[in-house]
């Protein structure tokens, strides 16, 4: 049985690398993770300054239990190699590479991190935002067995641009891409984070899309504004009733009286070993969320 993933990634907030106040503010926000962005959020003439600022603030630290990720520019861009060198030296929890479209690109990015002496625990995150990535998502996920790949981040805005699909309220044009990415991620025990929601003022629409992301199986959602954090954290966290039931399921299977049984009745519901595994995941996440809050 695969060990439960115990790191909450309910809210993953993008912060522009060129905005010093935003980088500092991220240290006090209740997001589970922050992505300090050197790519889309930084104009070409500000790349060098942003790179230096992000590297400096990550080295200083102060982000507490928040997971710190640096998004670099593509390694084929004029800024990518310098971004990666500075990011590795700064020592974040992970590095997010844009527009990953094949297993070969994951391998190249992972080997580049290795060559720069990245710490073994520094993970590789991949933006899934091209048509080719969706069609090759299984092989991209499989590359995690021999690389640093640990997470997918959906780039739904870029997918919309590349496919010409409309970003409707129900995201129907993206259902295949979203489901395929979650399925591939789960097969290889990767984290998988939903894409951003652009209409910051539409709080009802945002909450609805968070619930949809949860239903698809995402671990959490990338965010573009701090005002979205509270809703995201609430939706993607198991509620008290879920946690209580999960603990009851685990306890039932641990009861010596039930040793060897594959099916039990818990709280009036037929419960199998697969439900125990799901319960362990729920409890692991709930405990990790409580630990972050403390």
Q: Could you describe the 3D structure shown?
A:
The protein is of the alpha/beta class. Helix content is 45%, strand content 16%. It has twelve helices and ten strands. The protein has helices spanning 20-25, 47-60, 80-90, 103-115, 131-135, 137-142, 156-163, 175-187, 203-216, 229-235, 240-254, 273-293, and strands at 11-16, 33-37, 67-71, 94-97, 123-128, 149-154, 191-194, 220-223, 263-266, 269-272. The strands form two sheets. An eight-stranded parallel beta barrel has the order 1-2-3-4-5-6-7-8, surrounded by six helices. Strands 9-10 form a two-stranded antiparallel sheet. β2, α2 and β3 form a beta-alpha-beta unit. α11 crosses α12. The two termini are 29 Å apart. The relative contact order is 0.12.
Percent helix among the residues?
40-55%
The helix/strand order is EHEHEHEHEHHEHHEHEHHEEH
Number of helices: 12
Low-confidence stretches: none
Say how many strands there are: 10
Distance between the termini: 29 Å
Structural class: alpha/beta
The largest sheet, given as strand count, sense and whether it forms a barrel, is: 8 strands, parallel, barrel
- Strand arrangement, major sheet: 1-2-3-4-5-6-7-8
Calculate the mean pLDDT score and round it: 94
Shape: globular
Report the C-alpha radius of gyration, rounded.
20 Å
- Fraction of residues in β-strands: 15-25%
